[in-house]
């Protein structure tokens, strides 16, 4: 131990003796370790940590899928009831739907997130209460007073951890709570408190109040349910999928023989992380590439310095130092660099995670807590130790292969023999170039993809538009006419605002992760349609909505007050093409529902442009619009004249309170933010990859520069002889360049091959560009090659210019 401490002390003195060299090594190691720690924290939280549920491998998310409309996370109560009755491969099935409430607490009226959940919900997730009980078979029956279970944080923060909370009633407003207590709000009886560790299985919602519900399959409004199931013990996923898919197909055929909706079962972890799995993996791989580049860079620097200390090693060996002692000294020096670099890297990782959180965590679901926990600390410590050992091992191997007498002769007589080539160092150069090129190519592709995403026209103009959702409680607005009356009064007040340009309402806003379809009967369909009926996306809107979003009117006219009394249709360009082919859609008639519905035929009065409703990367769907205001929940779209969305948000909330003080307004945000959220994951993935690629490129450039510098230093004597024999500086630069250039070319080839190997996985993150785009590959390869070439040329030329040809001759005369 005393000898090891002595080695550490000597290593520390060496660090202080060469502050410039030591700082470069320290910063390189710290950058690599910090980036790896930060990206591993992300990987650990999202992909490695298990979900906090017993038997989590048997938990499933049930989703519906359509070949054209994509995946829908929502299902209806009829699907839930069917699976409850007939599924034999499940131990339980649960449903929930999120909503927003206002709750009276000792701190005043507070907006809170809530959820209605089936009585089996907590059983499926194997949850036990902290206080009281959870739902039972008797809860949630229509007509009974609603009961609720509250989240631990709500109990602690809003109710002061009141031990007598069980049996107390909470007064809430907003949402249909199964027959409320009157116009002043609904009363919820608290029957239990959830444990602090419980987390809901939702990606970005965290309900604070859970209300027992029985979802009625006869109620058409119960079609926005999130369904979860637990596999029966011993049942494999394919068997459950076969059974449930068959039941679901039978249900869909009973509604529409031509239905293309299918059931999709996903393990719960995959359902929560599927959209961010590849970005997180790519960020971790980029972090690993950064660490490898830093490792290669630092190993080269330490190896080169060790070779310049050959005389010291030779003298110590001749004075009796054993090979073990010399190696021990080098290991100690490696740890002297590694430990402070690990500490600095941990601080950099902590700052990086704060940056991740501030920038939206690359679209990581909010339920995942990305932090530096025990697992991350253990990995960071192991990486620090491993890097320290590795950095010591590289120069140790170089010195341990040489005989002390040979080293001493070489140190005493520089002309005795030229140094042997150093393939290890050149291999590190190739590794650095390969890692930098692969990271730069991935980054460039992601940035170009994001630029394509920025140029996409969503089909509407989000600038200067404020949006919000309002939910009408059944107790205050029991019928369709009550609901329509409130919406009309609200629209009139919004349009009368001084800064208002247009205002309207819609049942599903674009970029709001919600949609709905309706069955339509076409009076004179296109010959391409198989029947006169079609299920097509349906939007219930008020006059002014299309104008508020500036959805372009291509033909005919828009809705006005006349259409509220005598409803009409407006169709999107794609809907017109699919329903009537090349015929003029104006004047064509549609019927909402089937011919047996008794609904009147209604004319098409206009055609508008297609809107990218669910995602910017998906084409606009076929949509029909109808002036229909009979929904308990709708969204507001308010376009301002000035574009001042901040003032408009406050004015919108104030007007709603003036019309009905108990009416909850939630999710108030500019439309540009909703569109921006669609671009957020691509933007953050691209920029974070760009930062990591730039870091890797800088480290690689510094590594190649250092390797070239030391390579010239080792061959200075040979270069002086060439000078004396008539060589000019350009000849010597070319001579040295030829020794490094093949390794750089090898690194470029390896980096290009690595990026092509990643192309299939990368394709899922790109839009508007191929992962093998030749222009990007060639341009980035040329750029990285130029940087590597400059990192060779600059130090070589500078060092050769300083050579004195007579120095070697004088040394040989002695």
Q: Nearest-angstrom radius of gyration? A: 34 Å
Helices and strands: which structural class? Answer: alpha+beta
Side by side, the strands of the main sheet go 3-4-9-6-8-7
Question: Roughly what is the average pLDDT, rounded to an integer?
Answer: 80
- Helix percent reads 40-55%
Portion in strands = 15-25%
Overall 3D geometry? elongated
Tally of extended strands? 22
**Major sheet attributes:** 6 strands, mixed, barrel
Number of discrete helical segments? 24
Compute the separation of the termini in Å: 44 Å
List low-pLDDT spans. Answer: 176-185, 401-405, 410-421
Task: Give a description of the structure.
By secondary structure, the protein is an alpha+beta fold. Helices cover 50% and strands 17% of the residues. The chain has 24 helices and 22 strands. Strands 3-4-9-6-8-7 form a 6-stranded mixed β-barrel. It has a 6-stranded mixed beta barrel with strand order 14-15-20-17-19-18. Strand 18 and strand 19 form a beta hairpin. Helix 1 (2-17) packs across helix 10, helix 3 (77-86) crosses helix 6 and helix 14 crosses helix 18 (645-659). The chain starts with a helix and ends with a helix.
């Amino acid at each position: 131990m005393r000898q090891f401490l002595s080695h550490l002390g000597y290593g520390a003195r060496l660090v202080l003796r060469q502050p410039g060299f030591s700082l470069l090594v320290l910063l390189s190691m710290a950058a690599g370790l910090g980036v790896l720690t930060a990206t591993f924290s992300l990987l650990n939280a999202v992909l490695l940590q298990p979900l906090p549920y017993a038997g989590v491998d048997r938990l499933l998310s049930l989703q519906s899928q359509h070949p054209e409309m994509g995946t829908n996370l929502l299902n209806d109560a009829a699907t839930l009831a069917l699976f409850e009755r007939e599924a034999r491969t499940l131990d339980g099935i649960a449903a929930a739907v999120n909503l927003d409430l206002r709750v009276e607490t000792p701190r005043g009226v507070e907006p809170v997130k809530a959820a209605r959940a089936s009585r089996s919900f907590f059983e499926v997730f194997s949850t036990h209460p902290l206080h009281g009980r959870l739902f039972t078979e008797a809860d949630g029956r229509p007509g009974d007073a609603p009961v609720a279970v509250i989240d631990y944080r709500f109990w602690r923060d809003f109710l002061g951890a009141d031990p007598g909370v069980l049996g107390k009633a909470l007064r809430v407003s907003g949402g249909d709570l199964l027959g409320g207590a009157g116009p002043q709000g609904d009363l919820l009886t608290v029957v239990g408190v959830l444990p602090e560790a419980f987390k809901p299985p939702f990606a970005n919602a965290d309900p604070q109040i859970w209300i027992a519900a029985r979802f009625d399959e006869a109620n058409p409004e119960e079609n926005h349910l999130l369904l979860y199931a637990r596999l029966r013990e011993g049942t494999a996923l394919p068997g459950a999928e076969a059974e449930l898919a068959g039941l679901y197909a039978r249900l869909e055929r009973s509604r529409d023989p031509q239905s293309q909706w299918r059931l999709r079962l996903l393990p719960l972890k995959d359902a929560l992380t599927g959209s961010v799995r590849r970005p997180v993996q790519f960020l971790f791989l980029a972090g690993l590439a950064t660490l490898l580049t830093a490792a290669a860079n630092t190993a080269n620097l330490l190896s080169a310095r060790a070779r310049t200390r050959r005389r010291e090693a030779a003298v110590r060996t001749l004075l009796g130092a054993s090979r073990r002692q010399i190696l021990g000294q080098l290991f100690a020096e490696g740890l002297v660099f590694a430990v402070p670099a690990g500490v600095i890297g941990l601080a950099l990782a902590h700052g990086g995670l704060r940056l991740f959180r501030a920038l939206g965590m690359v679209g990581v679901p909010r339920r995942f807590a990305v932090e530096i926990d025990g697992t991350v600390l253990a990995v960071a410590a192991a990486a620090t130790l491993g890097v320290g050992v590795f950095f010591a091992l590289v120069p140790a191997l170089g010195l341990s292969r040489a005989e002390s007498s040979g080293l001493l002769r070489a140190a005493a007589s520089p002309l005795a023999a030229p140094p042997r080539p150093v393939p290890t160092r050149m291999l590190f150069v190739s590794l650095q170039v390969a890692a930098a090129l692969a990271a730069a190519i991935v980054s460039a592709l992601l940035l170009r993809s994001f630029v394509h995403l920025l140029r996409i026209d969503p089909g509407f103009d989000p600038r200067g538009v404020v949006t919000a959702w309002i939910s009408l409680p059944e107790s205050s607005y029991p019928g369709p006419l009550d609901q329509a009356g409130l919406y009309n009064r609200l629209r009139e007040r919004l349009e009368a605002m001084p800064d208002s340009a247009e205002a309207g309402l819609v049942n599903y806003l674009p970029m709001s992760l919600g949609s709905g379809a309706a069955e339509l009967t076409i009076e004179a369909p296109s010959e391409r349609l198989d029947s006169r009926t079609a299920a097509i996306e349906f939007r219930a809107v008020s006059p002014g909505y299309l104008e508020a979003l500036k959805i372009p009117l291509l033909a005919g006219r828009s809705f006005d007050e006349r259409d509220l009394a005598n409803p009409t249709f407006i169709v999107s360009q794609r809907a017109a093409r699919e329903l009537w082919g090349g015929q003029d859609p104006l004047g064509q008639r549609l019927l909402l529902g089937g011919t047996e519905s008794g609904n009147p035929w209604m004319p098409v009065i206009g055609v508008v442009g297609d809107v990218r409703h669910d995602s910017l990367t998906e084409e606009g769907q076929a949509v029909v619009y109808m002036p229909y205001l009979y929904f308990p929940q709708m969204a507001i779209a308010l376009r301002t004249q000035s574009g001042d969305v901040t003032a408009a948000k406050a004015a919108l909330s104030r007007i709603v309170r003036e019309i009905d003080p108990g009416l909850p307004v939630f999710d108030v945000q500019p439309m540009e933010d909703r569109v921006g959220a669609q671009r957020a994951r691509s933007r953050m993935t691209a920029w974070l990859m760009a930062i990591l690629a730039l870091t890797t490129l800088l480290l690689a450039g510094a590594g190649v520069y250092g390797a070239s510098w030391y390579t010239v230093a080792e061959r200075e004597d040979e270069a002086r002889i060439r000078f004396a024999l008539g060589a000019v500086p350009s000849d010597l630069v070319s001579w040295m360049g030829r020794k490094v250039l093949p390794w750089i070319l090898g690194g470029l080839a390896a980096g290009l091959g690595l990026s092509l190997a990643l192309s299939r996985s990368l394709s899922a993150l790109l839009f508007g560009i191929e992962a093998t785009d030749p222009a990007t590959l060639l341009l980035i390869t040329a750029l990285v090659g130029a940087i590597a070439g400059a990192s060779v040329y600059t130090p070589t030329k500078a060092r050769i210019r300083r050579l004195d040809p007579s120095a070697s001759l004088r040394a040989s005369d002695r």
